[in-house]
Design brief:
The complex is a heterodimer of chains A (324) and B (326). Chain A has 324 residues and is α/β, with parallel strands linked by helices. Chain A has a single domain, classed as Rossmann fold (3-Layer(aba) Sandwich), CATH 3.40.50.970. Chain A is 45% helix and 12% strand. Chain A has twelve helices and eight strands. In chain A, helix 1 runs antiparallel to helix 11 and helix 5 packs parallel to helix 6. Chain A is globular and about 50 Å long. In chain B, the strands form three sheets. In chain B, strands 3-2-4-5-7-6-12 form a seven-stranded mixed beta sheet, sandwiched between helices. Chain B has a five-stranded mixed beta sheet with strand order 9-11-10-13-14, with helices on both faces. A two-stranded antiparallel sheet of chain B has the order 1-8. Chain B folds into two domains: 182 residues, Thiamin diphosphate (ThDP)-binding fold, Pyr/PP domains (Rossmann fold, 3-Layer(aba) Sandwich), CATH 3.40.50; 127 residues, 3-Layer(aba) Sandwich (Rossmann fold), CATH 3.40.50.920. Classes of the chains: A alpha/beta (324), B alpha/beta (326). Chains A and B meet through strand 2, helix 5 and helix 6 of A and helix 3, helix 4 and helix 5 of B. Bound molecules: thiamine diphosphate (TPP) and magnesium ion (MG). The site of magnesium ion (MG) has 6 residues of chain A, from strand 5.
């Protein structure tokens, strides 16, 4: 593959991947301190997917993601402070603290979650795309989900409906080879996920999800295809989660060798190498980026720490829209 | 004034909604070419075209979810789920997405979705097609649950629902589609915050909704012949519940029978009884009574189905017991 990126593009990809990695490493520490509770699904290892794909969407486009969405929200542009506050459950969080790790929302960026029922986002994305089509808007809805979602009926119903109605939705399968502890081959008779999409008459591609440039190239093309009114498109990113499914699990379902093998393909490590080889990255660049990110994280944590809890009197606020 | 059927009233409401707002569209199984399972949307495909009258595959979860998404995206979808029995396949979308998004997003996203479905038993279609689950739906915060019992409500509640900012579920009792009535005077869009007293009386309050309203009215007619004046309260809206009208009636009659076609255990009738107990205990001259379905899957043969469901005779007997005449 030939890389025709500029230095700034390359540094931006690296910066975003590092932002996600460091943000989540900090979140894991805060979890151990009891500052963050509940489920915390880390994206570590999969950063190239969000970083390579999210910038392909314009601010007018919509994003629907899963409970493993920290990276997507960060790249989409929601401030790290409001995301950290959301992890804390503080009132200043991106969902007023009511969602936590699994339910990031940001209306101003058309970020529709943070949805934690596996495959539950696909029908919603199909509907967002339907609304755009009906209103003659050239917007695209990007819908992220895991390989586990492929087993749900909603996956099949949604692909069928989107293709049948030629809707402007881009399906983005983050295939990290496991649905919790169930390996792909243990939950799918046909493990070629792109082939399933093709069966519903969607154009589909499989992409190296450990390479931000490969992700970017494929996603840009796919978004353009959808935006031009050609109907839905399907991308399967082959990637890998380095950490447990949620904060802790015994990892009985995979070998240490397998994890080590994939870690050799760490998207940050390999991309850093790519940039160095191309002469686009100096040691000082990396230091500067790390320093910037460290400051951003410190500020985010300080913001979350200082933020108030939502008053219990507001418990039932926003169950329904207030009557005017 | 001419009489129309409930089915025609729904169709009038749908047509008016589609005419008034270009963002309104109808989707569901067989709403288009077939004309609607209960013929509610007959003729609308010809009138409004396939973009606005959309036949969907048998994918309840996905077309309800798509309705949620379309609502988020600025449309005013009316989703028809053929019957409440099949809405179970969409329950996840309803409970985990439609009902939660607003609160869970800190008020950022509302889902202005209207879902209609047929409900209820009484047509000998056996256990899998005779459910009355609107009480389950009324358990869910974040949505509005409507049970139109008259032609005026069948047409008007739909129009009002389309102005609500949050999800509204309309349960049309399948038995009602063929009943006839006159559209009442007044603006087509009706109030959806209040219960309605369908018959006034001073001796006992019959609290009910949907298809059972007519059974309660029939019971009240029988009771009148014995000199017992029953008041019939049509709840109309199960969530948010108009407890004020219920309490006012109980404070007048001092006796209440709640009629609900759902199974008795954990029924919406239990909720009504509990709220009366909480708010008006000392106004009662007798314990609140309930007439609900027997705790069985609804059987096919007519005699067994009739026995399983609330009937005017059962309501009359319950009133007799309350009055010490049983
Ligand atoms: C409908 C549903 N069933 C089960 C779960 C519990 N669950 C949460 S995540 C998960 C695995 C999903 O795997 P995948 O879609 O591959 O996403 P990943 O976690 O790998 O990103 C399961 C079974 C759920 N949230 N929703
Ligand atoms: Mg997975």
């Amino acid at each position: 593959m030939t890389y025709s990126m500029t230095r700034e593009q390359g540094l931006q990809l690296l910066r975003h991947m590092l932002r996600i990695r460091r943000f989540e490493e900090r979140a894991a520490e805060l979890y151990q301190l009891g500052k963050i509770r509940g489920f915390l699904h880390l994206y570590i290892g999969e950063e190239a997917v969000a970083v390579g794909s999210i910038p392909s969407f314009t601010s007018e486009d919509a994003i629907v993601a899963t409970y493993r969405e920290h990276g997507h929200a960060l790249v989409r542009g929601t401030s790290m402070g409001t995301l950290m506050a959301e992890l804390y459950g503080k009132a200043t969080g991106c969902a007023s603290g009511r969602g936590g790790s699994m339910h990031f929302f940001d209306a101003s960026r058309r970020f529709y979650g943070g949805l934690a029922i596996v495959a539950g986002g696909l029908p919603v994305a199909v509907g967002l795309a339907l609304a755009d089509k009906l209103q003659g808007r050239a917007r695209v809805t990007g819908c992220y989900f895991g390989d586990g979602a492929v087993a749900e009926g909603e996956f099949h119903e949604s692909l069928n409906l989107a293709a049948l109605w030629k809707l402007p939705v881009l399906f983005l399968c983050e295939n990290n080879l496991y649905a919790m502890g169930t390996a792909l081959a243990r939950h799918q008779s046909q493990t070629d996920i792109a082939a399933k999409a093709k069966a519903y008459a969607l154009p589909a591609e499989t992409v190296d999800g450990m390479d931000p440039l490969a992700v970017e190239t494929a996603t840009r093309h796919a978004v353009e295809f959808v935006r031009n009114g050609n109907g839905p498109y399907f991308l399967e990113y082959r990637t890998y989660r380095f950490r447990a499914h949620s904060m802790y699990d015994a990892e009985l379902y995979r070998t240490k060798d397998e994890v080590a093998e994939w870690k050799r393909r760490d998207p940050i490590m390999t991309f850093e190498q790519t940039l160095r080889t191309a002469g686009l990255l100096a040691d000082t660049d990396l230091q500067n980026i790390e320093t910037e990110i460290a400051t951003e994280i410190e500020d985010a944590v300080a913001f979350a720490e200082a933020s108030p809890w939502e008053p219990v009197e507001q418990l039932t606020k926003d169950v329904c829209t207030p009557k005017t | 004034m001419t009489k129309i059927t409930y089915r025609e009233a729904v169709r009038i409401g749908l047509r008016e909604a589609l005419q008034r707002n270009p963002r309104v569209f109808l989707m569901g199984e067989d709403v288009g070419k077939y004309g609607g399972t209960y013929a509610c949307s007959k003729g609308l495909l010809d009138e409004f075209g396939p973009e606005r009258i959309r036949d969907t595959p048998l994918s309840e979860s996905t077309f309800v979810g798509a309705g949620i998404g379309a609502a988020l995206g600025g449309m005013r979808p009316i989703v028809e789920v053929m019957t409440v029995n099949f809405s179970l396949l969409a329950l996840d979308q309803i409970l985990n997405n439609a009902a939660t998004l607003r609160h869970m997003s800190g008020g950022q996203f509302s889902v202005p979705l209207v879902v209609r479905m047929a409900t209820g038993a009484g047509r000998q279609v056996a256990a899998q097609h005779s459910h009355s689950l609107e009480g389950w739906y009324a358990h869910i915060p974040g949505i509005t649950v409507l049970t139109p019992a008259t032609v005026t409500d069948a047409r008007g509640m739909l129009l009002t629902a389309l102005h609500e900012p949050d999800p509204v579920f309309i349960f049309e009792h399948a038995y009602l589609y063929s009943i006839e009535g006159e559209l009442e005077e007044g603006p087509p869009a009706v109030d959806i915050s209040r219960a309605a007293v369908r018959r006034t009386g001073k001796d006992v309050s019959l609290m009910t909704f949907g298809g059972s309203v007519w059974k309660a009215l029939a019971a009240a007619t029988q009771l009148a012949q014995e000199g017992i004046e029953a008041e019939v309260v049509d709840l109309r809206v199960l969530r948010p519940l108009d407890i004020g009208t219920i309490l006012a009636s109980v404070q007048k009659t001092h006796r209440a029978v709640v009629i609900d076609e759902a199974w008795r255990t954990g029924s919406f009738a239990a909720e009504i009884a509990a709220q009366i107990m909480e708010e008006a205990f000392y106004d009662l001259d007798a314990p609140v009574a309930r007439v609900c379905s027997e705790e069985v899957p609804i059987p096919y043969p007519k005699h067994l189905e009739d026995a399983a469901l609330p009937q005017p005779e059962k309501i009359v007997r319950a009133v007799h017991r309350l009055l010490g005449r049983g």
